[in-house]
Amino acid sequence: MAQGTIDYKVYFLTDWHAGSGLTSGAEADAVVIKDSEGFPYIPGKTMKGLFADAFRDFQSLGIDKFTKESYDSLFGFMDEQTKATSPGSLFFSNAYLPKSEKLAIGFDQVDYLYRNIASTAIEATTGVAKKSSLRVMEVCIPISLEGYILGAKNAEEQLIAQLAKYIRTIGTNRNRGLGRCSIKTESIK
Q1: 184 forms bridges with which residues in the sheet?
Q2: Where does the CRISPR type III-associated protein domain lie (predicted)?
């Protein structure tokens, strides 16, 4: 079977935060990961992890095509005795804003893609904010990013498309309404 490229698009429906692990001083405690031009992106390893987690969810349901062997072949595995790792056949690129959209936004207007949101912890007994619990997070407005997956066989295209449909959120605070999304795949090239 031939191996090819599956293109995918991530359509964000809400603000989202894929963290860089950095802060911006007094502005925000956590900032969005950005490319060298200041535009947001999602690392390929994050995308691979989301697809792998979706696969494991289907696997736990006992669906025939979601086997351990299939998982190991696609995403890789670690030998329990030797602790050696073997990579899977799939490679996930970073998901970027398309070049045409970057040009339309303009490099001097990139800051309009972001905003800060604040949250604090509330003391359960008093209903008052806990001391020193205010956190500010930079989020990105809803946009669409695109990337690709290498190493998929034609027979695996439908499985990957099914996994993409299952992924509904990306990034931090997914259980609090951030990062809702839809992922669409295109046919293997």
Answers
A1: 9
A2: 10-182
Structure tokens at 144: 């669409």
C-alpha to C-alpha distance for 35 and 44, rounded to whole angstroms: 13
Closest CA relative to residue 138, chosen from 166, 165, 171: 171
Burial class (CB in 10 A: 0-12, 13-18, 19+), 117: middle
How far, in Å, CA of 62 to CA of 76, rounded? Answer: 20
Nearest to 49 by CA among 155, 158, 173, 169: 169
0.90 surpassed by pTM: no
139 conformational bin, left if phi > 0, alpha if psi -120 to 50, beta if neither: beta
Q: Phi then psi for 18, rounded to 5 degrees?
A: -105, 110
Residue type (1 letter), 39? F
Using one digit for the tens of pLDDT, what is the confidence trace for 74-95? Answer: 999 988 889 889 889 999 999 9
Task: Please give the Cα distance from 165 to 149 (Å, whole number).
Answer: 15
Show the domains of the chain with their CATH numbers: 4-15+33-104+142-187 (3.30.70)
Say how far apart CA 25 and CA 28 lie, in whole Å.
6
